[in-house]
Write a structure and sequence with these properties.
- The protein has 7 helices and 18 strands.
- The protein is of the alpha+beta class and about 350 residues long.
- The protein folds into 2 domains: about 5-165, D-amino Acid Aminotransferase, Chain A, domain 1, CATH 3.30.470.10; about 175-340, Alpha-Beta Barrel (D-amino Acid Aminotransferase, Chain A, domain 2).
- It is globular.
- It starts with a strand and ends with a strand.
- The chain binds pyridoxal-5'-phosphate.
- Pyridoxal-5'-phosphate binds near residues 236, 237, 258, 259 and 302.
C-alpha cells in the first residue's frame, strides 16, 4: 500500500468548547488528506497536511461543469474511548460507482479507507464525546484542469476533510412535515441520480427553498417521467410501512443507494419483518393514509440516521402519519442503528470498523 506523507500543523486551532452547539458542518479539524491524479501518472502523492484553502485556477473544470463526486460518513466515539467507522467500505465502493458515472478515475477503495483511518487518528482529539455527537467525514474528488471546454478531466484532486458534528436530534426524534414536490424533479433514469455528485443537489435547491418558505422541512421527490412514483425525501432514502409491510422504492438509477437504507433493510429482515423494494406511488400512500393503513413513514441517511415523517402535503391533501408521532419501527431502527454505530450494542452484522 502507498505510504501517506504526513505534515502536522504548527498552529492547531481552538476546538469548539460547547459540544451542544456544534450543529452540522460548522467546524473543521486541523488536517486534511489530499491526493492528486494526473493522466499518465495515476493517483499519486497521498498526504495529510494542515487544513486550509486550496488554490484553484479560475478555469478549473469543476467550477464550470460540475465534474465532482463526494461521500459522507462518520467516526463515532465508543463508550470505552475507542473510535468506530460504520461500513466505510460501502462508502468507498459507492464513491467509485459515482466516479465511474462522472468519468473520474477510480480510486483504490482499501487505500481510501486507510487514508480515512489515518486522518481520523491524527485529528482524534476533535471527535466529540457528548451523547449523539460524532465526527463527520467528507471525502470528495473534483476536476482541476484549467480548461474551459467540456471533456473528462486529466487532472483531479481527492480530498478528505473532517467536521465535528452535534446530535441531530438534541430534543429527541421529532417527526417532520414533508411537501410532496409536483413541479421540480431531482433526477431521472439515465441521469446522475444514483451518483453522489454536486449537480443533484444544485437541482434540488429551488424546491427545497420553496418548501422551506411554505413551512415544510423537506420535499418528497417523485419520479421525473410520470410524476407518480416516490423516489427520495430531501437527501434521504424513504420508507413507508403499510399494513405492517415495510416498503422502500426500488433502485432504478435515479435514487441514491443509501448505506443507511441497506442497513435498515438488513436489520428489519433480521427481526423477521417483511421488507419490499418496489415501485410505490404517491396515490398508493394517499389511499393507505385515507384508509388508516399507513402505519409509519421515515427517511434514512447518515446525518440524521432515521427521520420520522409526521405529515405529508400532496396538493390540497394533508396526510397525518401515526398522529404526528414517531412509530415503533422507526424508533427501534433508530435505537438499533445508533446502538451499533456508537458501539453500545453488539454488532452482530460486523458493520463497524475499529480505528482504534
Ligand atoms: C447521501 C444520500 C442519501 C443517504 O445515503 P447514506 O449512505 O445512507 O448516508 C440518500 N439520498 C441522497 C440523495 C444522498 O445524497
Amino acid at each position: 500500500m502507498k505510504e501517506i506523507r504526513i505534515e502536522r500543523t504548527k498552529a492547531p486551532k481552538t476546538k469548539p468548547a460547547d459540544q451542544s452547539k456544534l450543529g452540522f458542518g460548522n467546524y473543521y479539524t486541523d488536517h486534511m488528506f489530499l491526493m492528486n491524479y494526473d493522466k499518465g501518472q495515476g493517483w499519486h502523492d497521498p498526504r495529510i497536511v494542515p487544513y486550509g484553502p486550496i488554490e484553484l485556477d479560475p478555469a478549473a473544470m469543476c467550477l464550470h461543469y460540475g465534474q465532482e463526486v463526494f461521500e459522507g460518513l462518520k467516526a463515532y466515539r465508543s463508550p470505552g474511548g475507542g473510535i468506530l467507522l460504520f461500513r466505510p467500505d460501502k462508502n468507498m465502493a459507492r464513491l467509485n460507482s459515482s466516479n465511474e458515472r462522472l468519468c473520474i478515475p477510480l480510486i483504490d477503495e482499501e487505500f481510501a479507507v486507510e487514508a480515512i483511518r489515518q486522518l481520523v487518528l491524527i485529528d482524534e482529539d476533535w471527535i466529540p464525546n457528548a451523547e449523539g455527537t460524532s465526527l463527520y467525514i467528507r471525502p470528495f474528488i473534483f476536476a482541476v484542469d484549467a480548461h474551459v471546454g467540456v471533456h473528462p478531466a486529466n487532472h483531479l484532486l481527492f480530498c478528505i476533510i473532517l467536521s465535528p458534528v452535534g446530535a441531530y436530534y438534541p430534543e429527541g426524534l421529532n417527526p417532520v412535515k414533508i411537501y410532496v414536490e409536483q413541479s421540480y424533479v431531482r433526477a431521472v433514469k439515465g441521469g446522475i441520480g444514483f451518483a453522489k455528485t454536486g449537480g443533484n443537489y444544485a437541482a434540488s435547491l429551488k424546491a427545497q427553498d420553496e418548501a422551506d418558505k411554505a413551512g415544510y422541512t423537506q420535499v418528497l421527490w417523485l419520479d421525473g417521467v410520470e410524476r407518480k412514483y416516490i423516489e427520495e425525501v430531501g437527501t434521504m432514502n424513504v420508507f413507508f410501512i403499510i399494513d405492517g409491510e415495510v416498503i422502500t422504492p426500488v433502485l432504478q438509477g435515479s435514487i441514491l443507494s443509501g448505506i443507511t437504507r441497506m442497513s435498515c433493510i438488513d436489520i428489519l429482515r433480521s427481526k423477521g419483518m417483511k421488507v419490499t423494494q418496489r415501485l410505490i406511488s404517491i396515490d398508493e400512500v394517499a389511499k393507505a393514509a385515507e384508509e388508516g393503513r399507513l402505519n409509519e413513514a421515515f427517511g434514512s441517511g447518515t446525518a440524521a440516521v432515521i427521520s420520522p415523517i409526521g405529515q405529508l402535503k400532496w396538493g390540497d391533501k394533508i396526510m397525518e402519519i401515526n398522529g404526528g408521532k414517531i412509530g415503533p419501527v422507526s424508533q427501534e431502527l433508530y435505537d438499533t442503528l445508533t446502538g451499533i454505530q456508537w458501539g453500545k450494542i453488539p454488532d452482530k452484522f460486523g458493520w463497524t470498523v475499529k480505528v482504534k
